[in-house]
Structures are given as C-alpha cells and as structure tokens.
Amino acid sequence: MISRFFLDDKQLHLPKDKIEQFLNTLPIQLIQSIEVVDRMDASADASQIGMIKNQHYSETGLGRRGQAKKYYNSRWGYGNDIDLFYGTDKYRIYGNIYHSRHKTLLQEASEMTLSKRQLSFNSNTQATLKRREDNILLGADYTPQEKTKWSFLYIFHYDMDKDHHRETQTEVFDHQAYDYRITSDKLFSQTSKDHSFSVALNHALDTLGSNLQLNLDFMDRRYINPSKEQETFHKASVTTKTFEEEHKDHVLVYACKAAWNKKFANKQKFSLGTRFFLW
C-alpha cells in the first residue's frame, strides 16, 4: 500500500518517520479537519490507495511556535530537526528543516549448497556506508480577503548514500573439497536531489461551500549513481575483471489543476475539473 500526506490539498513528500514529527509542530487550535481517505476516485493516481488530508488555518490572531531537536544515534551519526510556525489573521508561515549524517557498518555471512552438483558456497561480506539526508519544507498562506486564499509551498529533499563500499569473499567447495575463491570489491554512491514548488488559489463562491480551485506545481528531480566493481577469481591463476558504470536521471514535471465545485441547498454537489501534466 502507498500512503500519501496532503496539507491544504498539496502533497508533502516527507519520509514516513517525519510526518508525525511535522504534525506535532502544528498547534491544535489551528487544525480545522483531518480526513483519512481509503478509496480514491479517478482524479487521483491509480497507485494512490490511501492518503491523509490535513487542513488547518489561523483564526485566533497572532500565534508563534518554534521547536528544535537534536539527537545522536549509536552508529556514529547525528541529526537536527527544526520546526517553525508564525501566523496572523491574514497570513501564516510554517516550515521544517531536517539534517542528518551517520555511518553504517555491516557484516554478514551466508552459505548455499547445490546438492545435485555437490557444490557449496561460503560468503562473508563487510560493508560501510555514509548516509546524508537534508529536507527543507517552507510554506505560506495569504488571505487578502475573506473569500480568497493563496497558498505557497516549497520542498527540497536531498538523499545520498556516499562511499558505499562492499567487500565480499566467497569460497567454493566441490564435493566438500576447497576448489576456488572469488573476491568482489564494489564502491558506489547514490544521490537524489528534488526541488518542488506549488502555488494554489482557493476562492469561495457562496456561503454553501462552493469554490473555485487552481493549482500550479513544478518539480525538478535529479538522480546519479556511479559505481565501480572489481572481481577477482583465485584458482590455479588469478583473473581480475573491472566494471565501471554511471546512471543519471533528470526529470522536470509541470502540472496544472483547475476545479469548480458547486454545492446546492438540497445538499447535492456538482464538480467540474481538469488536470494537465508535462514532463
């Protein structure tokens, strides 16, 4: 199942463990409604099975909230988490900054046997990995008049596995007798960097809840994955092979959504909308 989190009808690309932290930064009196949607209509992506919509606004005058957290884990790392909120009757500003660095060590052993061929493989792996992650979320709402509301949202996500180094030694036995050894030395990195910006307009048409909505979204996603692997075969002679490759991906997405929602006094509803994507 794929779950997504929406704030004022705008999707926030937050890791699962950060959604709860972000919700905890919102003052309770500013939350208008929370809606859990487990069945999606045709206006949503086919892979989107569930989502949480959280809508909140300020009606109580001036409000401020700031919070900073810092922690260290047992695997040589640290993280910082800073939250910000400021609001008045006409506008509010909120944000979250997350920064972490840590190093991971891995040791594992495995055995495999092919009974029909009387072959067995004993492998030992050691790996190190440097993790880097940065997330920035900045949002603002502006209400120039009672029926009109503008919303702005910027999200930056940076995720990197740096110097992922894996060394594996595999010993091969034929009929329980040592036959040969394979050593593999692989070094690779993965870097993902995303920028997204959204602008939304919500204009109320009457007192029944009818409204006009307009959303403009832009996303810039870059991914790079260079790798180098050296494999050595030890038997009567030593043979070494080296492989190098690099994967790159760059995606630009432009999206526009417009919707007209009409509500009637007899509780009937009528909606008309369109969405446009370009990438």
How many DSSP-defined strands?
Answer: 13
CA gyration radius, whole angstroms: 26 Å
Q: Helices and strands: which structural class? A: mainly beta
Count up the helices. 1
Strand/helix succession:
EEHEEEEEEEEEEE
How much helicity do the residues have? under 10%
Low-confidence stretches: 38-74
Please summarize the sheet with the most strands: 9 strands, antiparallel
Beginning-to-end CA distance, first to last residue = 26 Å
Instruction: Tell me the strand order in the biggest sheet.
Output: 5-6-7-8-9-10-11-12-13
The overall average pLDDT, rounded, is 77
Strand content: over 45%
User: Which of globular, elongated, flat, extended, rod-shaped describes the shape?
Assistant: elongated
Commentary on this structure:
The chain is mainly β. Mean pLDDT is 77; it is low at 38-74. The chain is elongated. The protein is built from one helix and 13 strands. The relative contact order is 0.11. Strand 11 (211-234) and strand 12 (238-263) form a beta hairpin.
Give the topology:
Blueprint: E1 3-7, E2 10-12, H1 16-24, E3 31-37, E4 50-56, E5 63-73, E6 77-87, E7 91-114, E8 119-145, E9 148-174, E10 177-204, E11 211-234, E12 238-263, E13 269-278
Parallel strand pairs: 1-4
Antiparallel strand pairs: 1-2, 3-4, 5-6, 6-7, 7-8, 8-9, 9-10, 10-11, 11-12, 12-13
